[in-house]
Fold this sequence. Notes:
With 188 residues, this protein is mainly alpha-helical. Helix content is 48%, strand content 2%. It has five helices and two strands.
Amino acid sequence: MSEAAWTAPRVTRTTAGGDQLNVPSAADERVLLDGWLRWHRETLLTKCAGLTPAQLARTTAEPSGLSLLGLVRHMAEIERWWFRRGFAGEPVGDVYTGPDDGDEGMEGVDAAHAERDFARYRAEIAACEAAVAGRGLDETYVPVTRGRTVSLRWVYLVMIQEYARHNGHADLLRERTDGATGDYPEPE
């Protein structure tokens, strides 16, 4: 498919027992953490669904340089940082940026690479899920930049709050892009 014809794909939400939120309301802690993280990941993608590469790369809340594509790139970087590089200790580099630049993928957005950036994001999620599969929430590591021991549970909570914050940004960016609001902003 050519880049000109590509649009961010519509997300089919995963469900848990028909629950619209796809997160069970009564389950063990790991199921709840996995469910809420999955819901936030899917929410970011729903905010992008149906948009062209140019729309995804557009900054719509000046003077901020935030864009929906920048948020997708940023979350790929953050997923890798916490789950793979940190917790799992995988010797992988950055997805988009150097460790000291502070923007973690939000800068350098190029509409011509939107399809590739979405594929990288999805691949990073799959790699992160594989990195923690079968690992206990009480397992710990010491992040090089933090210097204190953290558990996998803590990493899940950090990721959920990171998505919650950025999904709020995505809500505003999407509304400013085409006026769409709600969980499925893509026109039916």
